[in-house]
Amino acid sequence: MVDRDKQTMIEIIATTRGTENEFEDTPLGMSLKRLSQDRCLRSKIKFNNSMGLAEVYNERIRADSDCDILVFLHDDVWIDDYFLATRVADGLNRFDVIGIAGNRRLAPSHEGWAFVNGDWDRQHLSGAVAHGTEPFGAITYYGDSPAECELLDGVFLAAKRSVLREHGVEFDSRFSFYLYDLDFCRTARKAGLTLGTWPIAITHQSGGAFGSPQWREALDLYKKKWAK
Q: How many domains is the chain partitioned into structurally?
């Protein structure tokens, strides 16, 4: 494990609609219990949450804490990698923001980190994500990792609080649950930060909501914001 100091202490941030007791039965809740002996890891979970992800994430970016490294996660994620702290710290020594999957280019007609005009942008993707209803699910390999990227999948994002605050990078609260990750990546790149994928093993229970009415509404807002 990494040394315990402010530079390597990691704060895991997530929201959940359930109570604290109910959270213990979520994939992330079970994962944090499994990793409870790692003194480098702390968690800040918003229980009974009705706020957008961006608002909750920004609260922690602005907060004072002895943890400089922030990891933004969904509550339906199993952390399969018990060397999480080491891997995140190593990744942030190379990039300012890391994720587990991403796109190495920013196509004009992209509709997500992995899609252009509704099709997979396969030749430009990087990283890997497992999916399934149990931990250690079936793995989807997108491409070589680590790799410098323009967009990252919001299921897992990590950055140093000090770096985000120094460059004035936050999440846009208008993107409550969809496209917040793309917008955040664009904002970070505009501020001069580097983005990249890093090999970290997780299993995501959900396949996402690509194409849903709420997602399309967020896409319209995203396109208007970045039209120039």
A: 1
Instruction: Give the residue among 36, 50, 119 at the shortest CA–CA distance from 84.
Output: 36
List of residues 6+ apart from 63 with CB closer than 8 A: none
- Phi-psi label, residue 131: left if phi above 0, alpha if psi -120 to 50, beta otherwise: beta
Would you say residue 215 lies in a domain? yes
The pLDDT assigned to 2 comes to: 43
The low-confidence residues of the chain, meaning pLDDT below 50, are 1-4
The string of pLDDT tens digits covering residues 54-90 is 999 999 999 999 899 999 999 999 999 999 999 999 9
User: Can you spell out the DSSP letters for 155-189?
Assistant: TEEEEEHHHHHHTT----TT-SSSSHHHHHHHHHH
Give residue 26's domain range. 10-225
* All residues at 6 or more sequence positions from 128 whose CB lies less than 8 Å from its CB, including other chains: 100, 101, 139, 140, 141, 142, 145, 199
In sign, the C-alpha dihedral spanning 65, 67, 71, 76 is negative
